[in-house]
Design goal:
The complex is a heterodimer. Chain A is mostly helical. Chain A has a domain of about 220 residues: MetI-like (MetI-like fold). Chain A is about 75% helix and about 0% strand. In chain A, strands 1-2 form a two-stranded antiparallel ribbon. Chain A is globular, with a radius of gyration of 24 Å. Chain A starts with a helix and ends in a 13-residue tail after the last helix. Chain B has a single domain, classed as MetI-like fold (Orthogonal Bundle). The radius of gyration of chain B is 22 Å and the shape is elongated. The longest helix of chain B is centred in the first third of the chain and has 37 residues. By secondary structure, chain B is mostly helical. The two termini of chain B are about 30 Å apart. The chains are: A mainly alpha, B mainly alpha. Chains A and B meet through helix 1, helix 6, helix 7, helix 8 and helix 11 of A and helix 3, helix 4, helix 7, helix 8 and helix 9 of B.
Chain lengths: ~325, ~290
């Protein structure tokens, strides 16, 4: 591939992402002004502050400034990692995030590993073996796709944590191994729906590749079947599978809100749920922005990886692979 | 679920087996049964869904309470039946809103093209950046809990999927000779769209909307589970799972497991019905 073209494409995609993020940040900021009542009373949400606290809040959010100036102030702070103060926790939102983000990232990474392993393996054996195996995988994935992550969380908790006592039923644990043990059930609950989706996508992509002429030719030449599958089928299917990467990560990030709440894991998902119920708006803004930014970054990485995985794809036309 | 709606590339190519039609019939039957139960709920529910009988709390199935009693002493069967109403009404609102607006936006974008098309395509890309559930949570954090705010937010979040599909379909339809024939005869664009193009693309869009119904149900149940959907006393399946979680931890899973099972079966039923419909339409077109 032409390196200059790739660099130019990368620069354009990064710029596009920056613009989308900017608009998203504006939406997250502007949402405050769609609320009924004055921004100050909304931010306080029924708490009755001393005049000094009210003055501090007004100064902190620059509520006396015009709207555009307020947004620029806020954006400047956010870019420096300052998301304001949480009204519920009475501390800086950035500190809350720093405390909780590692737990969420560990959980999402574990779930991603489960999704990739189980999804690819199930899709592969369904496509290659066919017959009864295929039918069984199809039924299992149909059920998995219909299971919301909070349902999976509550059912797994009831069976493996309460009834059998194999895993802890809540909390995130201390130390790496203990954490992984605590996060196993949540990770599986988070992964279940996506395993079903990924298995189906892999199965379809592999069936399509199995149908193509070069596979018949390879078989005719006497290439062993496992090599045909690995070199000619799986590789061809990989592009299609990669296009779902953004979707998988976005789903993981959103569903972690439900799973963390079900298992009382102190990550940013549970933080968002608590902040929403206690009307702690600066925290809601910060977590929403972080989730959107993470999601967009993954999409960008997928877009950049696609032409490397499948050289037939010209830059920027991700639809061609699907 | 999600929140993020899946396009699920290539699902239409899933081959239909002999058992497929049986599964399809079971799905249709179950969906019909749930809708019927929701419609008749106030008359067939054995108890008031909010009547509290603390003495019977966490009791198992009995003649008086066929499906047992939850931790707060409320009859599970009655709550499931009345919960079907809110649990189905919410997704219905999401689907109706996103389908109507999405079809209008998609048709306008495809038919007019040019700047309007660019504007609509750009704004749908922006909505894609916000997963539906996140948008709903953002709206709830401003407007407080209740069913309307999340339904509108999810309707907006699902809109791009419908509008993008519609745009592609209308673009293909526009190139067909019957459209130019009507244009030559002096029919207005609006007339051609409403009378001829829309009925032609309707099955594909509606099949997609049926699948969207399942996703909306999962999203709304999830919001209720977080305590951000329906108000506390309203019976709702997602809320019942939330209420039943303490009972699960105390070793009485029935009041949480039953709504879980209903959510999964209903979503699967709508998914299977929608996919089968989309599959059939796709084959007819080929």
């Amino acid at each position: 591939m032409n390196p200059t073209a790739f660099l130019r494409f990368t620069a354009r995609r990064v710029a596009e992402m920056a613009v989308t993020l900017l608009i998203a940040s504006f939406a997250v900021f502007g949402a405050l002004y769609l609320a009924p009542g004055s921004p100050a009373s909304f931010l306080l949400a029924g708490r009755s502050p001393s005049p000094e606290a009210l003055a501090a809040l007004t100064a902190r959010h620059h509520l006396d400034d015009p709207f555009a100036l307020r947004y620029l102030h806020w954006l400047g702070d956010v870019l420096q990692g300052d998301f304001g103060r949480s009204l519920t926790y009475r501390t800086d939102v950035s500190r809350l995030l720093a405390d909780r983000l590692p737990t969420t990232l560990l959980l999402v990474t574990m779930a991603l590993a489960v999704v990739l392993t189980a999804g690819l393996v199930l899709g592969r054996i369904a496509a290659v073996r066919g017959g009864r195996t295929d039918a069984a995988v199809l039924v299992a994935t149909t059920l998995a796709i219909g299971t919301p992550s909070f349902v999976a969380a509550v059912l797994l908790q009831g069976l493996f944590a309460v009834r059998l006592g194999w895993f802890p039923s809540s909390g995130a644990g201390d130390g790496l191994l203990d954490r992984i043990w605590h996060l196993t059930l949540p990770a599986v609950a988070l992964a279940l729906y996506l395993i079903g989706m990924l298995a189906r996508v892999t199965r379809t992509a592999m069936l399509e590749a199995l149908d193509s002429e070069h596979v018949t030719v390879a078989r005719g030449r006497g290439v062993p079947e496992h090599l045909v599958i690995r070199r000619h089928v799986l590789r061809n299917a990989l592009g299609t599978v990669l296009t779902t990467g953004g979707l998988i990560v976005a789903t993981l990030l959103v569903c972690t809100i439900l799973v963390e709440t079900a298992f009382s894991i102190g990550g940013i998902g549970q933080l968002l749920e608590l902040a929403t119920t206690t009307k702690d708006f600066p925290t809601v803004q910060a977590v929403s922005l972080i989730i959107v930014a993470l999601f967009m970054t993954v999409n960008l990485v997928v877009d950049l990886l696609l032409p490397l995985v499948d050289p037939r794809i010209t830059l920027g036309t991700r639809g061609a692979a699907a | 679920m999600t929140a993020v709606l899946t396009r699920r590339p290539g699902l239409a190519k899933v081959t239909v087996r002999k058992g497929g039609s049986l599964l399809h019939r079971a799905a249709l039957g179950f969906a019909g049964l749930v809708v019927l139960a929701a419609l008749l709920a106030p008359w067939i529910a054995p108890h008031d869904p909010n009547a509290v009988d603390l003495g019977a709390a966490l009791a198992g199935p009995s003649a008086d309470h066929p499906l047992g009693v939850d931790a707060a002493g409320r009859d599970t069967l009655s709550r499931l039946l009345l919960g079907a109403r809110t649990s189905l009404l919410g997704p219905l609102g999401v689907v109706v809103l996103s389908t109507l607006l999405g079809v209008a936006a998609g048709t306008a974008a495809a038919w007019r093209g040019g700047r309007l098309d660019t504007l609509i395509s750009r704004s749908t890309e922006l909505v894609f950046a916000f997963p539906g559930m996140l948008l709903a949570i953002l709206v709830v954090s401003i407007h407080g809990e209740g069913l309307l705010a999340p339904v509108v937010a999810l309707g907006v979040a699902y809109l791009p999927y419908v509008s993008r599909l519609t745009r592609t379909l209308v673009l293909a339809e526009r190139a067909r000779p019957y459209v130019s024939a009507y244009q030559v005869q002096g029919h207005s664009a609006l007339q051609i769209c409403l009378r001829h193009v829309l009925p032609n693309i309707a099955p594909v869009v509606l099949a997609q909307s049926t699948i969207n119904f399942g996703y909306a149900l999962m999203d709304l149940a999830g919001l209720s589970f977080l305590g951000l959907g329906v108000p506390p006393l309203t019976p709702d399946w997602g809320r019942m799972v939330f209420d039943g979680q303490t009972a699960v931890q105390r070793g009485y899973p029935l009041s949480a497991v039953l709504p879980c099972v209903l959510v999964v079966l209903t979503v699967v039923a709508f998914n299977v019905a929608g996919e089968r419909w989309a599959d059939r339409v796709a084959r007819r077109d080929r």
